[in-house]
């Protein structure tokens, strides 16, 4: 057995702000080891984004505990959580979430700045990261000058900036054509294999699911199946 990187126990989340409370997650258990490449699937509304948000500390469960790399994040104060996230978890979202007025260099450099990386080292690291996703020549482009696939690759480079152990990706290919989606998955698989970064990504896309080595299916906020497969 490898090292446990994500360990969720009895995680439940009920959204109570709505007229009728929504039980988005019910007693979810999840155990993921370092270096896994896991797809989170299930019908719309089954709780995938909610679970990713709980693991990434973007929101708190109503009950249950979440450990990330041995740290019980459900116990951390908001400030400690921000710090922990910055150091340990990279996020990739369906809508890319790049800052439109900033260039690729600035979008990625911004994260490094938050980490107080000196300017000279930032520049070097930005170029390294863009090279990893095959976009060195787009260092001075703003998101509006890039294709969807290229924007998402910049978003992956930004997620990698803090050298996270885990990348959580919420439907990263949802807004991409199939060629760009394939390309993004190849980059993610390479980072997983070469740098041992753990990936947990939600998706509806069958071709993306086929690339995973483990597929966890949520139905009505519960784990319905958890299957190890050989990726194509
Ligand atoms: N902030 C919120 N307030 C109230 N209800 C919410 C909130 N966020 C999600 N929900 C509800 O929680 C349930 C799970 O939503 P979630 O977004 O986690 O599902 P999902 O599996 O990611 O769906 P999709 O595949 O459509 O993105 C849904 O019934 C949704 O309507």
TrEMBL record:
GO terms for molecular function: ATP binding; ATP hydrolysis activity; transmembrane transporter activity. Residues 6-232 form the ABC transporter domain. PROSITE patterns: ABC_TRANSPORTER_1, ABC_TRANSPORTER_2. It comes from the Bacteria. SMART domains: AAA. GO terms for cellular component: membrane protein complex; plasma membrane. Pfam families: ABC_tran. Keywords: ATP-binding, Nucleotide-binding, Transport. PANTHER family: ABC TRANSPORTER ABCH.1 (PTHR24220:SF86), IMPORT ATP-BINDING PROTEIN (PTHR24220). Belongs to the ABC transporter superfamily. Macrolide exporter (TC 3.A.1.122) family. This is ABC transporter ATP-binding protein.
